Request: fold
Amino acid sequence: MSDTRHTRLLIIGSGPAGYTAGIYGSRAMLEPILVQGIEPGGQLTTTTEVENWPGDTEVQGPDLMIRMEAHAKAMGTEIIGDIITDLDLSKRPFTAQGDSGITYTADAIILATGARARWLGLESEEKFKGFGVSACATCDGFFYRGQEIVVIGGGNTAVEEALFLTNFASKVTLIHRRDELRSEKILADRLMRNPKIEPLWFHELHEVLGDENPRGVTGVKVKHTKTGEISEIPCKGVFVAIGHAPANELVIDTLETHMGGYVKTKPDSTATSVPGVFAAGDLTDHQYRQAVTSAGMGCMAALEVERFLAGEE
Ligand code: FAD
Ligand code: NAP
Reply:
């Protein structure tokens, strides 16, 4: 299908930043189009309980994102299941190429493409991805009933994944390169109290061990970060939870970035280095990376688009 759609505001991404931008953009009568991307609902669809979304003591991540989508739609955002594969920001209207064949042209754009899981970059990690190596406990935890699992990392994601995996696993070893967790204290306390979880401090993943036929993980080699000593841990699953990197591939050559690829915005603003292009959420945020801060930036971006377009009229 080959088709062109013009909109005053194109929102790229369907996490908390994108949907909030949709709500505010709709209420400003900009009739936004929002393209969802490969992960409709964004990162929160890969988790279970969210306990820090204001107004909900506890809400399931996927449920929260379904509600946000419905809210944006009810306000008037047109939500399209498509992936933007190419973006031309060199002239206005801006042009975005959809994987569906649709070409979107837009007077203003809000980038809300968020972040994606980082990997260690080991050859053996790559070899067993999808065959015992995963970056999503909620997606794959179910396959490890009664098995031993290792989780790599010491942030909120690693601790939450380790706790979640105790629903299935007989034992979870949390491998962290230091002896102090980066996660929130409430999560760290839960981890330390859980009898199924054993932290292994000052260790890094050295190699994933496994069989070829059928392909699957049998264990890991870990390296002591101080002594360099190598040891082995038997396990069937390896969950890598070492953080997230901004999903900046559409704009890495056209927009200013900083702090390892986060899109740079003007102080107290979501404006990027190209007038008419705004960025919100984890794509721009190396510091907080929370649902509520992403939603806040989505709001700011839509309000700034409204002012930007009004200023041109
Ligand atoms: P994301 O949620 O990352 O969404 C990005 C969107 O962009 C996706 O919809 C994707 O499909 C889309 N996209 C990307 N590329 C393209 C493209 N080329 N074309 C079209 N669309 C594209 N935060 C909390 O506050 N509380 C929590 O309890 C919490 N738990 C978490 C648990 C896990 C396991 C993880 C990974 C994160 C958690 N976070 C939590 C962090 C929170 O999920 C993020 O801060 C938040 O989702 C960022 O929102 P965002 O809108 O910037 O982007
Ligand atoms: P993160 O906070 O950046 O933590 C990454 C962890 O992985 C750190 O402990 C880090 O170790 C470790 N690490 C990084 N590179 C490594 C490597 N090469 N080898 C071994 N270990 C490595 O990432 P995150 O936990 O994914 O969290 C991302 C953001 O989402 C954060 O802002 C977080 O607050 C948010 N989030 C929030 C919640 C919640 O609110 N409940 C849940 C999940 C995520 P060091 O500590 O030594 O640096």
